[in-house]
Design goal:
Elements (H helix, E strand, L loop, with lengths): L16 H5 L68 H12 L5 E2 H11 L8 H17 L3 E4 L2 E4 L1 H82 L3 H38 L6 H11 L35 H6 L1 E3 L7 H12 L20 H12 L2 H5 L4 H14 L17 H14 L8 H15 L54 H11 L7 H18 L1 H36 L6 E3 L6 E3 L8 H24 L8 E2 L5 E5 L2 E10 L9 E7 L2 H9 L6 H12 L1 H4 L6 H31 L5 H32 L5 H4 L2 H11 L17 H20 L9 H18 L12 H9 L25 H22 L2 H13 L6 H4 L2 H19 L9 H17 L3 H12 L7 H13 L16 H6 L3 H9 L7 H6 L11 H9 L4 H41 L3 H10 L10 E10 L7 E8 L2 H9 L2 E6 L5 E5 L3 E3 L2 H4 L8 H21 L16 H7 L2
Helix pairs in contact: 2-3, 9-10, 9-16, 12-14, 12-16, 13-14, 14-40, 15-16, 17-18, 22-23, 26-27, 26-29, 26-40, 27-29, 29-40, 30-44, 32-33, 33-34, 33-35, 33-37, 34-35, 40-41
Length: about 1300
């Protein structure tokens, strides 16, 4: 017998044999101990057998088994009610005894036994030994299980066990009550719903019956009245009739009337019958528009389960809370409707359409960011992120903050980075022999050049230059833009002759550059793309409206698709893969159905008649497929469906609508953004080809249910849409907002708080009473109060977090994608961060601070190479001015972020009365705002403050790199050019040559008459050629005048230079000879002047470009290029009006200077290592080490030091090169200068070059005739040409400075290099 099971009633102890004899029960076998199932629930004690042969007798239970639960004196505690529900156990009696005696020190076992025998006489019939053993066992087990606690020889109830049992009991009771309450509530709800439906049905039936009865009664009454009136009139006429003919006539008229009435009734019955037949013949589903038309004609009402279509909020309205949304279109501001409307006829595709394409291109269906080339280009953002970011611009927050959301900046930067880094197979590259191929190649070179100005701060200026280049490329008037390449040809056969677009135009007609109706790349004048382009000319990007920004970004995504031929191949592969997966899915489903039919049989078993033909018996199905085959088919089907579902997220290139409603409104579900359904509605409901549409969304479960219930499944389109929504509702509704969830959370929180308040009040009462108790009990009560209070606070926090997550009330930095963008940049360790432009905390500098940091960092690099030498202002003050300006702007420009829905209808109506140009925000206005912390400074002040430091920095880099020294040498050499002595000029041949030279430059200038003023490239080339001619003829005055004219030339603007040059013809009295041809470039006098053929053909040699003058000027810093020089770059800085253009000028300077400065730093370290090596070699006398040292750092080693050139002109020999004209330089650093001097070496720079070399003293010779006429035949022609050019320049410089050298001879007969003249003439 197992005495430890207290919940099972204890059997009475065995009684004596005399007791057995007095019973009438038949003895039974005692259950075996090894079979626990054979033991009854009320275990009975065995009797002691009188002998081994007699069977064991079973006596009826007496004693504890006869104790009734109701006889226990104390009320049974609730937590023990279950164990004493049917019977009493010994532990129950022990528990009752201890509780009743209530001894503070506890109750002993004898006392417990005495109490039980006193209170329950039934146990007196039990064997005393067995009774004592049972009580003792119950007590021991109670102590072992923690129900009792032993105090010396006494026992008490364990309070912890009591508390634990109470909590378990309370939890079970609460669960039971909740289940009962829910069951009751559900039952009542079902009952109420049933009664409601019944009442509604009865009401509707009564209403219909009443209406029918009323119609019938009114019809009957009217008919009867009318009939009575007719009969009375007839009787009256009959009485008035006096002859038989009159009576017959009246009777005939009455008969005709009767027949007409009968015919009318028959016609009405026929029409009603035809209507009923038409209604019966209709087959559903049918075409939706035809269905509505027939319903109207047949007067058929919609089914009762089809509700009225709900008002779907516009997409940007879904970003606010669900409670404060407009419930109709009348309550929606006009600016919201305009922002969500797509009208292709106006040239704009719409804000939401563009935003959707941007999302689908980067991370949605197309997923450029998931492709190999687009990896790590943009973060993995959601559609809500881009919509919130666009809404920040739409609300005007970006304009107030002077910063676009980082996500938008990153998308622009990534798109421009792809477009300005074209690969060899990018864009449409025609065949090698195609005449359009040079245009595409020229476009690629221009885009590569634009990449120099691209950065997080300057992308807007690069964007403008890019759009300008593409506009020039795609328009046919490009051939008139100076040296720009011809535009890409327009296929005029494409246009219809009857079209409004005119196809006749002339290349030479200035007033008709483009065919009417063709707008090129930037679109029509009123389009968002065109407006954005025009604004970028003179404004920073945050001044653009939201539709303008997304229109431009969408155009960039279109360009990426156009420029990447491999993407078309990728799309074809995706289509083929989706087709294959769909085919495999259908095949697997078909095979599964066949296998299931073969394994399970048909749903309705086949039946056959019996042999007698009287009864039909079912045919027993015999499976033809095994279980393994069925399981394999199931797995194959599931796998095919899973592969297809996964491919919907990775292989679909463009999401198709899941269906259309009856008005052809398309419903979209994007697998990458399942939070909402998007509906594209037609403005004209009956025209499916209407191009005016608006975007709405379904983002809550309640709205989803309302929309699906409004679909009339009798129509084909709405039936298919309903099936798509219903079959996919499990996945489509999963992520939608649940409006009922909030009510449930509030109700659960209210109930939880009520229970906690009740517990707190009880605990506080107990704590107040604990003052009369011992210290331990008092502390326990206080601890319980504190725990409950903490639980209440935690419950409030959890509830607020749940509501915040439910209502999407979150940090707008997360919603707008700023956090995602920052994590993306941090993961890739991007230094040129777009997030730093979004100054949402003090650690981010903003655009002005970032520009200031770039200037200061570049200055630090310069200062590490060459210390500050400017005496007008100190370096600390110079840097302080930049930093203070950035800090002032940062403090005065706060971040405006977030939106609200509290705007009233009055505010909305007032906004509708504002002019369209001022509608910059939705009904949601900025609230979450970081207000400016200090006085604000204007953007013009920031730009004007930074202009000076930027120019200083460029001059400093120009000097450090040695470009300034080389340029001055070239200019000085050109200024001292001479052809012959004055005496020789008076001679016959020389005089004739001088006269032809005079005529040649004038003739060259006269050719400007044939060049349009806007063709800046040919004008510049003509002036350069004329300058080259004037230099060879030693025409000093003419040379100065021509150079002044050239200074007026600007990229894309050569009109002023052309006018000034033509005025020189009047000044120098030029008359064109009658026998000269119009083609000036082929005149024989040009060949007599000298080798200037390059000048005449340079226009053809110069590479064509599609870049605008503004784009050309960006790359004019430092040494410049063929399209712009330092003068142009400095003018661009001086006339800069926007931060974006200023940042672009700084970025190009940084891109061009950084490689040079890094190389100079490396060369500086090389010089330091070389000096150390030479000093070590000088200290040793071992020849091998000297030889090793000379090989390691020879004279050809590229080194750098901050030097000052001297007037000492020499010839030096570097490595295997010939003796080269050079100048001796002095290092400004005292340590370097002394070290080189002590090593018997000297610093030299080649004439007209930037590089420095350290050569030994024996490798330097004075400038003399011997080296001027050295033999260069053993060297390459290029080396010989460069040496001759250097000698020529050195001689000119020395002549200009009055420096003589032995055997000086005029080397002016050397050929003039026109390319060099062009490079240095400005």
């Amino acid at each position: 017998m197992d005495a430890s099971n207290e919940d099972v009633p204890m059997a009475a102890p065995p009684v004596e044999s005399s007791d057995i004899a007095s019973t009438n029960e038949t003895p039974a076998k005692t259950p075996a101990k090894s079979d626990p199932d054979s033991t009854p629930k009320s275990i009975e004690m065995e009797e002691t057998p009188s002998s081994a042969k007699k069977p064991k007798a079973k006596r009826k239970s007496v004693g504890i088994a006869n104790i009734k639960v109701s006889s226990i004196s104390k009320k049974i505690p609730s937590y023990m009610a279950k164990s004493t529900k049917n019977s009493v156990t010994y532990f129950t009696l022990v528990h009752e005894a201890i509780v009743d005696m209530a001894d503070r020190t506890g109750s002993s076992v004898p006392a417990i036994e005495k109490y039980i025998k006193t209170k329950h006489e039934e146990v007196l019939s039990v064997n005393p030994n067995a009774f004592h053993k049972a009580v003792l066992t119950a007590v021991k087990n109670g102590v072992k299980e923690g129900k009792l606690e032993k105090v010396r020889c006494s026992y008490k109830i364990n309070k912890e066990w009591v508390q634990k049992e109470k909590k378990l009991h309370q939890a079970k009771e609460a669960k039971r009550k909740a289940a009962e309450k829910k069951k009751k509530k559900d039952s009542e709800a079902k009952k109420k719903e049933s009664e409601k439906k019944k009442k509604e049905a009865e009401k509707a039936k009564a209403k219909i019956d009443s209406a029918k009865k009323k119609d019938k009664n009114s019809s009957d009454v009217g008919s009867a009245q009318k009939k009575d009136a007719i009969d009375k009139e007839f009787d009256k006429k009959m009485k008035a009739a006096t002859t038989k003919e009159e009576w017959d006539k009246l009777l005939a008229e009455k008969k005709v009337q009767k027949e007409a009435q009968e015919k009318k009734r028959e016609e009405a019955a026929r029409i009603a019958k035809e209507r009923e037949e038409k209604i019966k013949k209709r087959r559903f589903p049918m075409e939706d528009i035809a269905l509505m038309k027939e319903d109207k004609e047949l007067n058929v009402k919609k089914p009762s389960n089809v509700t009225r279509a709900p008002f779907l909020p516009f997409v940007l309205q879904s970003l606010g809370s669900h409670e404060n949304r407009p419930n109709s279109k009348k309550n929606t501001p006009g600016s919201v409707i305009t922002a969500h409307t797509t009208n292709v006829d106006s040239g704009s595709r719409g804000l939401i359409s563009d935003a959707l394409q941007i999302y689908l291109f980067f991370v949605g269906d197309l997923g450029y960011a998931r492709m190999e080339e687009g990896m790590n280009m943009v973060p993995d953002f959601s559609l809500k992120n881009i919509l919130y970011a666009v809404n920040e611009v739409q609300c005007g927050n970006a304009k107030k903050s002077k910063a676009l959301p980082p996500l938008i900046c990153q998308l622009f930067l990534a798109a421009l980075l792809v477009l300005t880094s074209p690969k060899a197979d990018d864009w449409v590259s025609p065949a090698e022999d195609d005449p359009d191929r040079p245009k595409w190649e020229a476009l690629k070179k221009d885009l590569h050049k634009l990449k120099q100005s691209l950065s997080a701060t300057s992308w807007a200026e690069t964007l403008f230059c890019y759009m300008n280049a593409m506009q020039t490329f795609y328009t046919s008037d490009a051939t008139k833009g100076g040296n720009a390449a011809p535009g890409f040809a327009i296929d005029m056969q494409y246009f219809d002759d009857d079209s409004e677009i005119k196809t006749t135009f002339s290349q030479d007609d200035d007033d008709n550059d483009l065919p009417s109706g063709y707008d090129g790349y930037i679109g029509a004048a009123g389009s968002a793309l065109n407006r954005g382009y025009q604004k970028l000319m003179r404004h920073d990007p945050w001044n653009l409206s939201a539709d303008e920004l997304v229109a431009i970004l969408r155009a960039l995504t279109d360009d990426i698709l156009t420029s990447k031929p491999w993407m078309a191949e990728e799309m074809d592969k995706r289509d083929q893969k989706m087709y294959d997966l769909l085919k495999a899915k259908k095949s697997a489903e078909s095979q599964f159905r066949k296998t299931r039919l073969a394994y399970e049989g048909p749903k309705q078993p086949k039946r056959t008649k019996s042999a007698d033909g009287k009864t039909v018996e079912p045919v027993k199905f015999v499976p033809t497929a095994t279980k393994e085959e069925f399981e394999a088919a199931t797995k194959a089907r599931d796998k095919a469906i899973d592969n297809y579902e996964k491919a919907l997220k990775t292989q679909v290139q463009r999401t198709q609508p899941i269906g259309y409603d009856k008005y052809h409104n398309a419903v979209y579900f994007f697998h990458h953004d399942p939070d909402s359904l998007y509906v594209e509605m037609n403005k004209n409901k009956n025209d499916k080809f209407n191009e005016t549409k608006s975007w709405h969304c379904i983002d809550s479960k309640a709205l989803f249910d309302s929309f699906t219930s409004s679909l009339d499944v009798r129509g084909i389109r709405e039936n298919e849409l309903f099936q798509a929504l219903d079959s996919g509702s499990a996945s489509m509704k999963r992520y939608l907002h649940d409006s009922n969830k909030k009510e449930g959370l509030v109700a659960a929180f209210t109930k939880q708080m009520a229970e906690l308040d009740k517990r707190l009040s009880v605990a506080m009462v107990a704590s107040a009473e604990s003052t009369r108790r011992s210290g331990r009990l008092a502390n326990t009560s206080k601890d319980e109060v504190s725990l409950i209070q903490e639980e209440i606070e935690q419950a409030k926090i959890d509830h607020e977090e749940q509501l915040e997550a439910l209502d999407n009330i979150n940090n707008y930095a997360v919603l707008t994608g700023a956090v995602v963008a920052e994590e993306f940049e941090d993961s890739l360790k991007i230094t040129d961060s777009c997030c730093e432009l979004y100054h949402d905390d003090d650690s981010k500098p903003g655009i002005v601070g970032k520009i200031a940091n770039d200037i200061l960092l570049l200055e630090d690099v310069c200062n590490s190479l060459a210390p500050w030498e400017k005496k007008v202002v100190s370096r600390e003050k110079w840097r302080e001015e930049i930093s203070s300006t950035a800090d002032s702007w940062r403090d005065g420009c706060g971040l405006y972020l977030g939106s609200k829905d509290s705007s009233t209808s009055n505010d909305e109506n007032e906004m509708d009365t504002v002019s369209p140009s001022k509608r910059q925000r939705l009904s949601m206005e900025s609230t979450n705002t970081l207000l400016p912390k200090g006085p604000s400074i204007s953007m013009d002040h920031v730009i004007s403050t930074f202009k000076g430091p930027l120019l200083d920095l460029e001059n400093r880099i120009f000097s450090i790199t040695g470009t300034e020294r080389a340029t001055k040498e070239v200019d000085e050499a050109n200024d001292n050019l001479t052809v012959a002595s004055n005496e020789s000029d008076k001679g016959g041949a020389d005089a004739e040559r001088l006269e032809k030279t005079q005529y040649a430059w004038k003739k060259k200038i006269y050719s400007l008459h044939h060049i349009l003023p806007r063709r800046a490239g040919p004008i510049r080339d003509t002036l350069i050629a004329a300058i080259a001619i004037a230099r060879k003829g030693n025409l000093t005055d003419v040379l100065e005048d021509l150079r002044e004219c050239l200074k007026l030339h600007r990229p894309g603007a050569g009109g002023r230079a052309r006018t000034a040059a033509l005025n020189l013809l009047t000044k120098y009295k030029f008359e064109l000879n009658d026998d000269d041809d119009d083609d000036m470039d082929d005149d024989e006098s040009m060949s007599e002047v000298g080798s200037v053929q390059d000048a005449t053909d340079d226009t053809n040699d110069q590479e064509a470009t599609f870049l605008s003058p503004e784009a050309m000027m960006l790359s004019g810093s430092l040494e410049g290029d063929d399209q712009a020089d330092r003068v142009d770059w400095k003018d661009a800085v001086a006339t800069c009006k926007t931060l974006s253009r200023f940042a672009a000028l700084l970025t190009t300077l940084k891109q061009r200077a950084t490689p040079s400065l890094d190389k100079l730093a490396k060369d500086k370290k090389t010089l330091s290592k070389a000096i150390t090596h030479w000093e070590a070699s000088a200290r040793t006398r071992k020849k091998s080490k000297k030889s090793k040292g000379s090989n390691k750092f020879g004279s050809g080693s590229e080194i750098w030091a901050n030097v000052a050139p001297t007037d000492q002109f020499v010839f030096c020999r570097v490595d295997t090169f010939p003796w080269w004209p050079a100048r001796v330089c002095i290092a400004k650093d005292d340590e370097v200068r002394e070290s080189i001097k002590s090593l018997d070496r000297v610093l030299v720079s080649f004439i007209g070059e930037q590089h420095l070399y350290v050569v030994e003293n024996d490798e330097v010779k004075p400038f003399s005739e011997d080296f001027v006429k050295q033999d260069l035949s053993s060297y390459s022609p290029e080396v010989a040409k460069n040496v001759e050019q250097g000698i020529k320049m050195a001689v000119r410089i020395m002549r200009g400075r009055g420096i003589k050298f032995g055997g000086e001879e005029d080397p002016s007969g050397m050929t003039v290099d026109i390319a060099e003249e062009k490079k240095t003439s400005c």
